[in-house]
Amino acid sequence: MQIGPKIGLVLEGGGMRGVFTSGVLDAFMKHELYFPYVVAVSAGACNGLSYMSRQPRRARYSNIDMLQKYGYISLKSLLTQGSIFDPNILYERFPNEIVPFDFETYKNNPAVYEVVTTNCLTGRAEYLSEKNDQQRMTAIVKASSSLPYVSQITFVDNIPMLDGGIVDSIPVVRAVDKGYSPNVVVLTRNRGFRSGELDVKVPKIFYGEYPRLRVALSRRVEEYNRQLDLIERMEDWGEVICIRPERQMEVDRICRDVDKLERLYEEGFSLGEKFCKSYK
Fold first, then answer.
1. Helices 220-236 and 211-218: crossing angle, nearest 10°?
2. Are 38 and 111 in contact (CB under 8 A)?
3. Are 189 and 244 in contact (CB under 8 A)?
4. Which end of the chain is more exposed for a tag (fewer CB within 10 A), N or C?
């Protein structure tokens, strides 16, 4: 089932809440629902790769089964490798050994796949795509998922980059600018959610050599809430179709509770199937 040529798919991040997105995408693959354009950020970018390579349940395996087996979220990883999410397991062993990424299928997929990162030098979003170099593609997704403060900066094309969610958590404007409308937006928060965190000026002890990144980090909550406002207005106007959790959210960004993750995955799969059946 091929969707219209000008309808895009936007995938939010959210750390381990991204397991909801992996459920939605597995349902899409079950019903062979594919989009001509996908733009994704952070955890959404990781899950989107398996969707683009047509590998059902691969993202679920990494989010749930591998977490249970390898415990790849840990303070030990942060202290020894500079990232709370073990980068060796997630970006070396997983795509190359544990469940190899089907790069040939990904490469031959005619759909456009863009991943959002934050350029540490400019403090602005970068929208990157790669269909020929698997190593560069992995670096882009790793950069997009490199949470500030608890992950090392990742270099792509010799440019320091971090989590795309710092500046563009829900890149629907990018999709519209690329000519795709309406868009299906997969979110990892309930409707009506707004972050209650307070933006604070980031001191020079953090990212001292990247002043524009510090500015972006100091505005992160305000920008995210502004994007949520926009998405809900667009949804009310019929400009986007949102698929988001309906049950009360019980999974946080670094959740390690496998039962909670399984429930969120199943909810995503169920709502993804519901969307596919209604679209038919």
1. 50
2. yes
3. yes
4. C
